[in-house]
Amino acid sequence: MSGQTVVEKLAQAHLVQGPTRPVRAGDHVTLRPRHVMTHDNTAAVMKKFHGLGLSRIHDPTQPIFTLDHDIQDRSDTNLAKHRAMAQFAREQGVRFYPAGAGIGHQLMIEHGHATPGALVVASDSHSNMYGAVGALGTPVVRTDAAVIWATGSFWWQIPATVQVVLQGQLPPGVTGKDLILTLCGLYGEEVLNRVVEFGGPGVASITMDGRMTVANMTTEWGALAGWFPVDAITLEFLARRRQRGAAISDADLRRWTEDPPRPDADARYEGRIVVDLDQIEPFVAGPDTVQTATPLHEMEQRQIQIHKAYLLSCVNARLEDLTAAAAVLRGQQVASGVELYVAAASQEVQQQAEASGVWDTLLRAGARTLPPGCGPCIGLGQGVLQPGEVGISATNRNFKGRMGSREARCYLASPVVVAASAVAGVICGPGQNARAHGRAPLRTPEWLPHFARRPGLSPGPDPAGGEPRWNAERHFELLSSIEPHEATQIVPGFPERLTGRLVYVPVDNLNTDGIYGNDFLYREEMTREQMARVVMANYDPEFAGRARPGDILVGGLNFGTGSSREQAATAMQACGIALVAAASFSQTYLRNAFNNGLCCIVAPRLVQHLRQLLAGQDHPRTVIPGDVLVVDFVQAQIGLGHDLFPFAPLGPVPQRLVLAGGVENQIRQTV
């Protein structure tokens, strides 16, 4: 038997319940994480926790509370919510970071809550960032967090791993943000719902801040975790953190030095991507999607005027980022008609920037400062995009409507490009990008992914290339291994068949911002009826008025990508959607769905069929042709007219979750 990947080994180390043999990708297991972080959504988790009939957290050393998302809202309602969370933390003996301390993911690493070999989860999709220090960081959802408070553990299906081998080193002026934007733009299909395990000699050329950026945005790449090996750079960083008071001991440092977490030499990977860092150049992603990435030198030719620029968020607001931006802004002024917003990733980072003079440089250039936190990155507080505006941001997401109006456009880039663009008033670099060094732009044939051969797995994009894009047909090829199966064993009480009207959403990468917008995200008082009225409004304002109870919604590829907001699933239930089928899902969306009793199935061939029917036609955002779908859970087939399409069969774990009406009901029966 082959060895284990890092994710398999770390899951094994935190195993509560699972197979007696060594765990493998695909296994359903119960794990006990070292920590679970919740931010402003702590209020919603508290409500779920109390709804379980519980008053005391199982292990108060596990949870970490951080207030970082909606910290600019000084209304009585929001401040009362903050006080309630702080009071609950005091009563339970839980570590609590108030508004203004910083963004939760940054604090988790700064204070030593995420360390090599630890399983650390958070009810936020950018938990992947903990992999920068050799931890297994992965997102859970609000319901999972409540279950961990109640029992100390949660269920998980171990994902497969794709190895990313880094060779060479990044050229001057090229950053970790450029690397991850390139990967998101070129190879989105290969890592969806997998773990990305970085390795190779090129890792040593990437700073710790750069690793945090890359690991953070493996979320946008589609991965469930992004992991970097523990090396001299990691150990030096952790030693500095210990000196600044992080929860790290000398014994910890010795252990990580002598026996760092690592994969077995004969670990089994689903695929491998080899990256020549020397060939990476600055990239810009967008507008409105991370999957479309364009080399900076091409973007500069378009002379795209901007109105707002952003240096903030958990991906690019550390000292290295602010220092790089300040170097561009020194002696310059933000262009007339442009607003530049800056917020440090944490209070400590801001203090370091102030002490070094970096903060003053940003202010002298005309930057408008915000408190350490999320803010405009999720469309909250000052500086959000207004209708018709164009923004360029060092954040990790640019989904339509996420940073403000749906009628705005947003691009993503490195802090250096954001700063240069703020000065010029158009998207551009500082004149020190890859072209200035005589380097050729990245060409995809120079580093194709080299996947182990297996049925239905493509070797990579067409060497003829073209602009980086989401290759839907290649993704369908990756999913083509779903075939008719032997009869599925049905849990007693679970239905064998389900019938409903077809409601087709003909779009790939429908994100959770589109399904449930930011305007309602932290309004805990929203009733199911109110949620039903706003579901999908950010994607199709007419959806709620056309959908009806019992409908079966069919989506495209990577359905439910983006943030881990639970309402993207519960709002579907509120409007009566009986089942969601898609070509593929974000795994975090699936967790939310099944944890709340919403049934989902993966049916790529059905989606391909619907695409072919609509090919070349103009169609609305939501297509309701009047057809009826028949879902046969026993045969794992879905019928449309006389045609049958296979789907991945539902095992006993998701069946029981749907049957119980969600994991909370399961827990009520056992605690």
Please provide a written account of the structure.
The protein is an alpha/beta fold and 671 residues long. It has 3 domains: 6-278, Aconitase, domain 3; 283-433, Aconitase, domain 3 (2-Layer Sandwich), CATH 3.30.499; 497-668, Aconitase, domain 4, CATH 3.20.19. It is 31% helix and 16% strand. It has 23 helices and 26 strands. The chain has a 7-stranded mixed β-sheet, with helices on both faces. A 5-stranded parallel β-sheet has the order 5-4-3-6-7, with helices on both faces. Strand 22 (579-582), helix 20 (587-595) and strand 23 form a beta-alpha-beta unit. Helix 8 (232-243) runs antiparallel to helix 9, helix 11 (319-329) packs parallel to helix 14 (415-424) and helix 17 (528-534) crosses helix 19 (567-574). The longest helix is centred in the first third of the chain and has 17 residues, at 76-92. The protein starts with 5 loop residues before the first helix and ends with a helix. The model is unreliable at 432-472 and 474-484 (pLDDT under 50).
CATH T-level fold name of the largest domain: Aconitase, domain 3
- CATH class annotation of the largest domain: Alpha Beta
CATH superfamily of the largest domain: Aconitase, domain 3
Class of secondary structure makeup:
alpha/beta
Topology:
Layout: H1 6-13, E1 15-17, E2 28-31, E3 35-38, H2 42-51, E4 63-66, H3 76-92, E5 95-97, H4 104-110, E6 119-122, E7 136-139, H5 142-151, E8 154-157, E9 161-167, H6 176-186, E10 195-199, H7 208-221, E11 225-227, H8 232-243, H9 250-258, E12 271-276, E13 283-285, E14 293-295, H10 296-302, E15 308-311, H11 319-329, E16 339-342, H12 347-356, H13 358-364, E17 368-369, E18 390-393, E19 409-412, H14 415-424, H15 472-478, E20 497-504, H16 512-515, H17 528-534, H18 543-546, E21 552-554, H19 567-574, E22 579-582, H20 587-595, E23 599-602, H21 604-614, E24 628-632, E25 637-640, E26 643-646, H22 652-660, H23 663-668
Parallel strand pairs: 3-4, 3-6, 4-5, 6-7, 9-10, 9-12, 10-11, 15-16, 15-18, 16-17, 18-19, 20-21, 21-22, 22-23
Antiparallel strand pairs: 1-2, 2-8, 13-14, 20-24, 24-25, 25-26
